[in-house]
Amino acid sequence: MEVINGHKKWGFQGNPELIASSISVRGVLTKLMANRNKDDKRPTIPLGRADPTEYPSYRTTPVAPDAVADATYSYNFNCYPPTVDDVYLTAGCTQAIEIVVSVLARPNANILFPRPGYPQYEARASCSKLEARHFDLIPEKGWEVDLDSVEALADENTVAMVIINPSNPCGNVFTYQHLKEIAETASKLGIFVISDEVYGHLAFGSNPFVPMGVFGPTVPVLTLGSIAKRWIVPGWRIGWIVTSDPNGIFHQSGGALTQILKHTKEDFYSKILTTIRGAADILYDRIQEIPCLTCPHKPEGSMVAMVKLNLPLLEGIIDDVDFCMKLAREESVIVLPAFGSNPFVPMGVFGPTVPVLTLGSIAKRWIVPGWRIGWIVTSDPNGIFHQSGGALTQILKHTKEDFYSKILTTIRGAADILYDRIQEIPCLTCPHKPEGSMVAMVKLNLPLLEGIIDDVDFCMKLAREESVIVLPGVTVGLKNCLRITFAVEHSALEDGLGRIKAFYHRHAKKE
Questions:
Q1: Distance (Å, rounded) from C-alpha 482 to C-alpha 154?
Q2: Residues in a beta bridge with 429
Q3: Which residues, at least 6 apart from 339, have a Cβ–Cβ distance to it below 8 Å?
Q4: Region annotation Disordered: residue ranges (predicted)?
Q5: Among residues 418, 409, 380, which one has the least CA distance to residue 498?
């Protein structure tokens, strides 16, 4: 270890792949908040983060905390969450992104992301060494996907494309027809669609929200969602992954795993069992010849056995760790467990009696532990997992329609205010009126401004001079644009946009 000034240099460091992709909404907002003028007594207007929970108009439905309280005090839902059919619970949509992107990573693979988009996808792909390619969204067509660029980018190593609908950061909602075209394009290219629907159902314009999953018969779809936005509880970190694949393409596309499971001959298994059984016999017999070791039960399965260590018979051995450390230094020992007289019975056969989650992998039976392929299987013919949904099931089931309509009315009004006030600020252009989510992309017209270099400079100076926080577009992949969150109280939004207008007049280029 390197020594600096008489001290050893620390031997750890951050993941360089993750650090290289560390642009995040939270990180940029933190810098903007730190750049505020502390002498400005006006309240800060947060138009950069889609978290309206501090405002009374955006309180969640009482059904949500009541359901959590009921589930908590029932003591029935303190276990790990189950997986039901094609629904997989995650710790928020962020973990859903991490899981999906990570499992797709393989040598030479690439994935298609929208530009502008959500930076978490890029960061996860970089960390997983999955090549990210970017297709454009066309602002003049309501931020529709440029399907020609999708076809130009895809090749034989492309695994999937990501769409975000309703859009973060653009605020648009894709039409049924455009989603159909996306599905047909993906199917033609042989890739599946990952549909980020965190803002699902938060559509308040002329285009109704259409879940991408309805196109499952055309192309396999993974839908990522969460309770965060529709129920205004982003801190609860409850998300999900849903598969929509009625044709079983995901199952058919198991690649090597499907072929291994289907075509491995029985004599391979019997040969492996015979080999391991013989090794177990050798282990058990030889242990009898070593006084300091006792094998209380002859191995009958797996590849391991528990052996007692009789320390009083040994000199200079403190404990089992010391024994193993010294044995490792002095000897090389390989042990293998095997099968005995008791046949293996999968626990899943008792699913009619009790719900069972079975965890397995290809590692041991096929002797390929480095392949890292595993599975989770539910055995629950009585549907107990589905009945035991806890708080989330109650929230989904009992939230009244008037809660949704109230939130949509509030957000629709905020979108109207944003769009109208933007027209009064010459240096900003909103190419498409927001129809969904809680955010909008706005173009920044730099030639009209004096002393402003780019979108980051604009946002930093706006934070210092007006205590208004907006997100620079470069954060979401579109330089010299702004992402403005309009999910705040209407009065705060009017105040914030008024301050941006004053900022423009102060920095407007003199004619």
A1: 29
A2: 443
A3: 273, 276, 277, 280, 300, 301
A4: 39-59
A5: 418
Task: Lay out the sheet containing 144-145: strands in order across.
Answer: 87-90, 239-244, 221-226, 192-196, 158-164, 110-115, 131-138, 144-145
Closest CA to 165 of 197, 192, 125: 197
DSSP helix/strand/coil, 391: helix
Long-range contacts at 93-96 (CB < 8 A, ≥ 24 apart): 93/196, 93/198, 93/224, 93/225, 93/226, 93/228, 93/239, 94/120, 94/239, 95/237, 95/239, 96/224, 96/225, 96/226, 96/239, 96/240, 96/241
Q: Which domains does the chain have, with CATH numbers?
A: 3-57+401-507 (3.90.1150.10), 61-257 (3.40.640.10), 258-379 (3.90.1150)
The pLDDT assigned to 337 comes to 25
* Whole-number pLDDT of residue 85: 64
In the DSSP assignment, the letter for residue 421 is: H
DSSP string, 422-485: HTT-TTEE-SS---BSSEEEEEE-GGGBSS--SHHHHHHHHHHHH-EE-EEGGGGT-TTEEEEE
- Cα distance from N-terminal residue to C-terminal residue, the chain: 63
SS3 411: helix
DSSP H or E segment with residue 189: helix 176-189
> pTM for the complete prediction?
0.67
- The helix (H) or strand (E) run that includes residue 145 is strand 144-145
Q: What residue type is assigned to position 21 of the chain?
A: S
Identify the CA nearest to 437 among candidates 486, 497, 482, 479.
486
Say yes or no to pLDDT of 5 above 70: no
Query: Given its phi and psi angles, is residue 133 left (phi above 0), alpha (psi -120 to 50 degrees) or beta?
Result: beta
CA angle 470, 471, 474 (to 5 degrees): 150
In a 13 Å sphere around the CA of 484, the CA atoms on its Cβ side amount to 31
CA 419, 422, 423 angle in degrees (round to 5)?
A: 95
Distance CA 441, CA 485 (A): 9
Q: What is the pLDDT of residues 50-107, one digit of tens each?
A: 888 888 888 888 888 888 788 778 877 777 656 566 777 788 888 888 888 888 888 8
Q: What is the chain's Cα-based Rg?
A: 29
Q: What is the rounded distance in angstroms from the CA atom of residue 82 to the CA atom of residue 90?
A: 11
Q: Which residue type sits at 239?
A: G
Answer yes or no: are the C-beta atoms of 95 and 239 closer than 8 Å.
yes
| 335-376 tens-digit pLDDT | 322 233 344 567 776 777 777 777 877 555 555 565 456 677
Q: Which helix (H) or strand (E) is 133 found in, with range?
A: strand 131-138
Q: Containing H/E element for 496?
A: helix 490-507
What's the token pair of residue 452? 């402003």
